[in-house]
Amino acid sequence: MIPFGIEIQLDVAGSVAMGRIVVGPFSERFEAALDYWSPADYVKHWRHAEARLETGEGDALFFTSLTDPQGAHFFRCWIAWREGEEVMFQEVVLFAEQLPEPLDLEAPWRHVPARTTVSEDGDPISEWSLHWPVGLKASL
């Protein structure tokens, strides 16, 4: 089993819920907006993205906070790039104006940008990697 998982608290009140992503020994909490997606919508989306990694279909995108794509200026997510048996994860903000086409929630992996490890300012981008052979399931 692969030490990866993403979850959301189901006992939420208000317009945000707390979520957590785990990549190997790294763990981070995040706020998930609930004005467009419900906790169940996030979980469904994440399970589909996980399945892409498990089956080796390719890269995956995990939205962590999504508002109505029609009016949103940006989308918070974690992107996973598969390179053979290694999967690299980065927290990313996708800007709506920089997407080549409108956001497609049915195929969000189409919006995964090319992986870069250095920012525009020349600083290293935080990244976590996992050895994830095709066919193995996430454990968390």
Brief summary of the model shown:
The protein contains 1 helix and 7 strands; from the N terminus they run E-E-E-H-E-E-E-E. It has one helix at 39-55; strands at residues 4-8, 16-23, 26-33, 60-65, 74-83, 86-95, 128-131.
Tags for this model:
mainly beta, 7 strands, 1 helix, Secreted effector protein pipB2 fold, 3-stranded antiparallel beta sheet
Task: Explain this structure.
This protein is mainly beta and 140 residues long. The protein has one domain: Secreted effector protein pipB2 fold. 12% of the residues lie in helices and 36% in strands. The protein contains 1 helix and 7 strands, in the order E-E-E-H-E-E-E-E. The strands form 2 sheets. It has a 4-stranded antiparallel beta sheet. A 3-stranded antiparallel beta sheet has the order 1-2-3, covered by helices on one side. Strand 2 (16-23) and strand 3 form a beta hairpin. The model has no long low-confidence stretch (mean pLDDT 93).
Helix content: 10-25%
Strand content: 35-45%
Q: Helical stretch count?
A: 1
Assigned CATH architecture: 2-Layer Sandwich
Q: What letter string, H or E per element, gives the SSE order?
A: EEEHEEEE
Mean pLDDT across the residues is 93
* Unreliable sequence segments: none
**Strand arrangement in the largest pleated sheet:** 4-5-6-7
CATH topology-level fold name: Secreted effector protein pipB2 fold
Query: For the report, how would you describe the main beta sheet?
Result: 4 strands, antiparallel
The chain-level structural class is mainly beta
- Radius of gyration (CA) equals 15 Å
* CATH top level class name: Alpha Beta
> Termini separation (Å)?
9 Å
Tell me the domain tally.
Answer: 1
Shape label = globular
What is the total tally of β strands? 7
